[in-house]
């Protein structure tokens, strides 16, 4: 787990909310504080779907909603003349990419052992920080996936030309 301080918040927010850079993520949860505090549960709502839709992996391939689908709503809550007082997003890398992250290092951990590669996006009114995390289905002694995820996030930010400082 690492914490990365974003050095150009405006640039980051443009890529996060208006660009496609983070479209390979799912939203677990969001909290946005402006004139109210808005909370979004990214889990898909079972009662909204028919039984057939719920079981159709093309309609509902993941437990959580894609960032691509939910970001316009978040953008609408954040945009305006005033900066939010705070926000927090918990994102998961889309599971389809887990194997490629694990293949970047020497580990016996398999994709089915990894519950999620997590990226927390936190803004406290002045500082925007990204915090990485890894969730497993069971306890594992091998911390290689954590290090691989940390490295992948830093490479991703560099590729997206998002400047940061390692905290």
Can you give keywords for this protein?
about 170 residues; alpha+beta; 5 helices; about 30% strand
Give the secondary structure arrangement, pairings included.
Elements: E1 3-6, H1 9-18, E2 25-33, E3 37-41, H2 51-55, E4 65-66, H3 67-78, E5 86-93, H4 98-102, E6 114-123, E7 128-136, H5 144-159, E8 164-166
Antiparallel strand pairs: 1-7, 1-8, 2-3, 2-4, 2-5, 5-6, 6-7
What does this structure look like?
The chain is an alpha+beta fold and 167 residues long. It has one domain. Helix content is 29%, strand content 30%. The protein has 5 helices and 8 strands, in the order E-H-E-E-H-E-H-E-H-E-E-H-E. The protein has helices at 9-18, 51-55, 67-78, 98-102, 144-159; strands at residues 3-6, 25-33, 37-41, 65-66, 86-93, 114-123, 128-136, 164-166. Strands 1, 2, 3, 4, 5, 6, 7 and 8 form an 8-stranded antiparallel sheet that branches. The longest helix is centred in the last third of the chain and has 16 residues, at 144-159. The radius of gyration is 17 Å and the shape is globular. The protein starts with a strand and ends with a strand. The mean pLDDT is 94.
């Amino acid at each position: 787990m690492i914490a990365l301080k974003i050095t150009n918040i405006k640039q980051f927010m443009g890529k996060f909310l208006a660009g496609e850079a983070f479209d390979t993520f799912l939203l677990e949860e969001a909290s946005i504080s402006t004139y109210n505090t808005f909370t979004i549960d990214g889990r898909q709502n079972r009662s909204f779907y028919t039984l057939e839709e719920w079981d159709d992996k093309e309609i509902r391939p993941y437990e959580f909603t894609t960032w691509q689908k939910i970001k316009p709503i978040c953008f609408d809550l954040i945009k305006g003349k005033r900066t939010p007082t705070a926000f927090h997003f918990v994102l998961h890398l889309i599971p389809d990419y887990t194997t490629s992250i694990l293949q970047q290092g020497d580990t016996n951990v398999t994709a089915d052992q990894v519950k999620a590669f997590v990226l927390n996006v936190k803004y406290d009114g002045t500082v925007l920080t990204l915090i990485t995390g890894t969730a497993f289905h069971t306890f594992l002694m091998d911390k290689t996936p954590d290090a691989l995820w940390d490295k992948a996030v830093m490479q991703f930010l560099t590729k997206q030309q998002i400047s940061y400082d390692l905290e």
